[in-house]
């Protein structure tokens, strides 16, 4: 059992960010490991915050991980070996049947139709 809990705060510009909180008083500084397909990811930073027992975690997504398919990153407590959190990137053909992609496509088409309709109304008045 890990002495920490990890909560995602945001995922922006290729960097997953989270807040790591010690569940026990006096927990040692954390050792975090991030893997993709059982290979370690480099560039992971764990920085102490102004509050005791809290650390900011940043996981940069390597360029090699961006592409077709499903990529699942595991964030683990290197000491205890337990999984603290994970995040997944889905792109390309694997996403083709996803309802969220369909909704996003419909929104884009609706925006295009709205612009065309407004332009038509301006031109015909």
TrEMBL record:
Q: What is the lineage of its organism?
A: Bacteria, Pseudomonadati, Pseudomonadota, Alphaproteobacteria, Rhodobacterales
Q: Which organism is it from?
A: Ponticoccus alexandrii
Q: What is this protein called?
A: Uncharacterized protein
